[in-house]
Amino acid sequence: MGKPIFDCFDSSYKHPFGALRKGQPSIYNLRFPKSMAVKDLTLVMFRPGYKERFIELILQDESGDDNIYSCCFTPNNVGLHHYYFTCVLDGRRRYIKRRGASEGVFEGEDLFQLTVFDDNLYTPLFIRGGIMYQIFPDRFCRSGVEHEGVPTDRIIRDDWNATPYYKPDEKGVVRNNDYFGGDLRGIIEKLPYIKSLGTTVLYLNPIFEAHENHRYNTANYEKIDPMLGTEEDFRVLCAEAHERPVAARGLLLPHEKLHADDGVGHDEEDDGEVNGQVACRDDVKQLPASCRTRRLTTTRRATMTSISTLCSPRPSAIRRSSSAVFSADDTSLSQ
């Protein structure tokens, strides 16, 4: 079987692999047998709703069994781009599109996709090169400890391996109000296992008080959901994860929104959203001094707090931060 015309997962065809930074050049190589006399070979790149860009591919290498045609594309705009290739072969216009996950074929069914992100967006240095382990707290591990203050309208499941209730009720509403009881102490119990995987960053789905089991509809950013445990449980988790070290590089808590002044549930969206997560606003300065955070510049701002701060007896540093990244080493945030 010969080599494909194009494969977006192979860096010899598309370089660099994956998403691009705005203004970052990328190279596209197409391979054709010498018997194929292709003409007018063109990359067609566009964002939905905008005009197409047409970039000619030039013959770059004919020394091997195949002819290699290349072009360079530099994105000027942030967002999702679609692309395909077109050429004239045997006197008629042909199109090279995606079939399957990554290969380009004549008359393929799908367009290729390219994500372009802001040129000022940088990932935190302490995360790079690490191994991240994501946890959905309610279904990860339950310690069996009884927790106080759990709302009485929740359905508590004791059939751990069963399927959550996901169908609409008699009123046509999906409630997401059945809970299996995973908690922070359960995560602490599993730290030896997580460490055995080589994990350096723990990524927790939302843990703040909420009234659906996924906890993305946060009701109170100043309180950990009572079914998960207490702030003291969270401090112990941070301390033990860092000491083992399971989360030597950090612990991440993503959230969908930052609610305005009082940290308690509101419906309006904040203006600090960054790629589906939220950057802390200036009201972080209202926190106690031991809980104030350093900032890492991205397209907006992201909140950074050391695990050592979280383990202090002062009020929790997670307050007023709906997208918190807890670094095990604040010195890594200096850039």
Overall morphology: elongated
Helicity range = under 10%
Low-confidence stretches: 256-335
**What is the N-to-C order of secondary-structure elements (H for helix, E for strand)?**
EEEEEEEEEEEEEHEEHHEEEHEEEEEHE
Q: Structural class given helices, strands, pairing? A: mainly beta
Percent in strands? 25-35%
Largest sheet: 8 strands, mixed
What's the total helix number?
Answer: 5
Indicate the radius of gyration in whole angstroms. 25 Å
End-to-end gap? 49 Å
Average pLDDT reading: 79
DSSP strand tally: 24
Question: What is the gist of this entry?
Answer:
The protein is mainly beta. Helices cover 10% and strands 33% of the residues.
Overview of the molecule:
With 335 residues, the protein is mainly beta. 10% of the residues lie in helices and 33% in strands. It contains five helices and 24 strands. The chain has helices at 137-140, 184-189, 191-196, 231-243, 307-310, and strands at 6-7, 14-15, 20-21, 26-33, 39-46, 53-56, 58-61, 66-73, 79-89, 92-99, 103-106, 112-117, 132-135, 155-156, 178-179, 201-204, 208-210, 218-224, 250-253, 273-274, 277-278, 294-297, 301-306, 324-327. Strands 1, 3, 5, 6, 9, 10, 11 and 12 form an eight-stranded mixed β-sheet that branches. A six-stranded mixed β-sheet has the order 13-16-19-24-23-22. A hairpin with a 2-residue loop joins β9 (79-89) and β10. The chain is elongated, with a radius of gyration of 25 Å. Mean pLDDT is 79; it is low at 256-335.
